[in-house]
Specification:
single chain; mainly alpha; 4 helices
Length: 88
């Protein structure tokens, strides 16, 4: 597999930030307000899975750049934890 470029990594962080915002918004009641509960759970599940895939990648593990929420490592881990609790 080819090593990801800095631009690709930056794009991945943007996408992870979107997932964090969506997970937190669904749980907090500000996103997908009028959607079916099962659709909300499916969306949270997909986004948690996306975050878990990304955090397992070498570039994420070795990244020491300080990032701001929602793409900070703390915000990402918090969204994974909250999303899993929401799905339980």
């Amino acid at each position: 597999m080819e090593k990801e470029t800095a631009e690709q990594i930056a794009q991945s962080y943007v996408a992870m930030g979107h997932s964090v915002e969506l997970i937190n918004g669904i749980i907090g009641g500000t996103k997908m307000i009028n959607e079916d509960p099962e659709d909300k759970k499916d969306t949270v599940k997909r986004n948690v899975e996306h975050l878990e895939i990304q955090v397992s990648k070498d570039w994420y593990v070795s990244d020491s750049v300080s990032r701001t929420a929602p793409a900070s490592k703390a915000a990402i881990q918090s969204a994974i934890t909250a999303g899993k609790a929401y799905l339980a």
